[in-house]
Amino acid sequence: MTNSIYNLSKSDLKIFLKNNGFEAFRADQIWNWLYVKGVQSFSSMGNISKQLLIILEKNFSIKPLDIKKCFKSKDGTIKWLFSLNDNRDIETVYIPEENRKTICISSQVGCTLSCAFCHTGTMKFIRNLDSSEIIGQVLKVKNELNDWQLKTEDKKVTNIVFMGMGEPFFNYDN
Predict the structure, then answer these.
(1) How far apart are CA 77 and CA 99, in angstroms?
(2) DSSP 14
């Protein structure tokens, strides 16, 4: 299986491109397609050459998280249970309020802490999420809410917090 492109930093992407004979500025174009326009396939990247698209497809994947379950509340709150490649599950929650619209994302499968206020602490820690799984939560929610290319004042996601499964400082690098 190929590595998720979402595991690359922009500098990693520039190095990859340079090592494969492409100009570093292409990283900015690819980055824009992935994180500003939210494309879900390399073939959707209109200003990227066919040669580069082939290299990207050969080396990386753009695979969105799979939704296992989705729960919608009367107040607009939405909770997703996402299934990961190793058949583990994580939760992500969207909370729309008058002045902000927040996504609560997970950083781990399970948790090592046993905070009295949190159910996740009763679960056994399994593993840290990689960057693509953390980023994937945000991208999937934005896709589900159709939150791409909107004016700033119309954005459906304005805040992101780590309040799902796990303690984010125990997965600081990702």
Answers:
(1) 14
(2) H
The answer, yes or no, to whether residue 99 has pLDDT greater than 60, is: yes
Across the range 140-160, mean pLDDT stands at 91
Instruction: Map tokens 């299986």 to a residue.
Output: 1
CB 101 within 8 A of CB 150: no
Task: List the structure tokens of 87.
Answer: 């058949």
Encode pLDDT of 26-81 as tens digits. 999 999 999 999 999 999 999 999 999 999 999 999 999 999 999 999 999 999 99
Which tokens go with 127? 């593993």
SS3 state at 160: strand
Given its phi and psi angles, is residue 129 left (phi above 0), alpha (psi -120 to 50 degrees) or beta? beta
* Rg for the chain, CA atoms, rounded: 17
CA distance 162 to 168: 7
C-alpha distance across the termini of the chain, in Å: 20
